[in-house]
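Morning - 7,8-dihydrobiopterin inputs below, output right after.
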Amino acid sequence: MVQIDVLKAEIAPDHVIPQDWDSYTPADHAMWDRLFERQAKLLPGRAVPEFMDGLDILRMDRPGIPRFEELSERLMKATGWQVVAVPGLVPDDVFFDHLANRRFVAGRFIRKPEEIDYLQEPDVFHDVFGHVPMLAHPVFADYMEAYGRGGQRANGMGALTNLARLYWYTVEFGLIRYDEGLRIYGAGIVSSASESVFSLEDASPNRIGFDLMRVMRTDYRIDDFQQSYFVIDSFEDLLRQTLETDFAPLYATLAGQDAIAPEDVLPDDHVDHLGTQAYASAKAGEK
Ligand code: HBI
Ligand code: FE
């Protein structure tokens, strides 16, 4: 029975593994640099300034895959967060526990050239380039901890679907409104060359003012560009809505309501842009 013991020994209960930075190959570092350069060209003027500040604070402009220990040192000073390596997606309760304790779980692997534009699981570029810079922003750092605590409570109430939608439409695919126009802060967008442009400039998707209940009712796409993006007014406003709200009655109300389809626009939506859905219809037509 030794084999099973060895397997058990490999994955700790919190799923944390060593980053093992020395095992990255030159090709791995070259892939990071290729992805980084592509985004460095696209994001000025598209990403929220706080994201760009985060890249500077964490000195992520240096070549090669960052060492999580160095990131954690700087992050700890800025907002008390750290980055830990995990093999891939971890169970929800493990994920929430890490966030509630200001630990961001990041995949340590990096995508292969054939996966450069689309990969199933979050790799180190999605997790570290996409998610980590915003963790240097105090208010967003508070939001991510509050999300983790909310997840622990929601887990107990079977309301994970609603909370996963909140994560998806803010942390992963969120937009924010500035006087000069809309800007990106969602990790899934800032780590994607094509979606960094599509989310802000394509006529296809809806862009709708953020509303907590609306977002928690709205389904999302995991396999393609979003058909709707939700726009917050500020990180302070997003945090206030999350911290000051008792979610239990919201979950009870949501349990009795049908989900809203990703492409739908409702009469009382604050609509920044009514999408044509041309992209999604064309993709559907191809099937
Ligand atoms: N695990 N490593 C990892 N990264 C995630 O982003 C992640 C996860 N597990 C669950 C999860 N995200 C989502 O289901 C959250 O909305 C809970
Ligand atoms: Fe992510």
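Note: The pocket of fe (iii) ion (ligand 2) is lined by residues 122, 126, 131, 172, 187-188 (CB under 6 Å).

O.
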